[in-house]
Amino acid sequence: MNNDELVRKVYNSMYHQIKNSGTAVPTQVLIDLGVLSTVDYERWRFGKVDYLERVCKINLKKLSSIMKEVRAYARKNELSASTTIYKQWGRNGKKSAIKLRFSKHGGDAVERNYATHYISRSRLTEKKHPDATNAEKE
């Protein structure tokens, strides 16, 4: 995947996530790009994989480029950043107290980049109050 194609796919994933839910999540971008399988994501969430990057099917340089483009899209579209704490799932999908790692070395900046969700305040408002938004358009 060349750089232009990578940018297009990242932006497409972010756009559709925002359109559908008002929030874009880096791990979902990785799944959408085929870099991370849903099965491997769930294995990581259940603590069967020590860090997320281990099961990503791309080298760290490309992975870093994807994360850079996620942040670029968020800036360009004035999305609000919200850091999330990922905790291991326990039985029946419930969260435990064990915090998950995204990277081998666990550096703060890298971990924060993966754990940051991007929120479109206007899109969330539309979803909560669809009648008000439609009335404004008419």
Tell me what you see in this structure:
- With 138 residues, the chain is of the alpha+beta class.
- It has one domain (3-137).
- The protein has helices spanning 3-21, 26-32, 38-45, 60-76, 108-115, 121-128, 130-137, and strands at 23-24, 80-83, 87-89, 95-99, 116-119.
- The strands form two sheets. A three-stranded antiparallel sheet has the order 1-5-2.
- A hairpin with a 5-residue loop joins strand 3 and strand 4.
- Helix 1 packs across helix 2, helix 1 crosses helix 4 and helix 6 packs across helix 7.
Main sheet: strand order: 1-5-2
What is the number of helices? 7
Q: Count every beta strand, where a strand is a DSSP E run of 2 or more residues.
A: 5
Helix fraction bin: 40-55%
Secondary-structure element sequence?
HEHHHEEEHEHH
Shape: globular
Give the termini separation: 43 Å
Helix and strand content put the structural class at: alpha+beta
Q: Give the biggest sheet.
A: 3 strands, antiparallel
Strand content: 5-15%
Low-confidence stretches: none
Number of domains: 1
Q: Rg from C-alpha positions? A: 16 Å
- Average pLDDT reading: 89
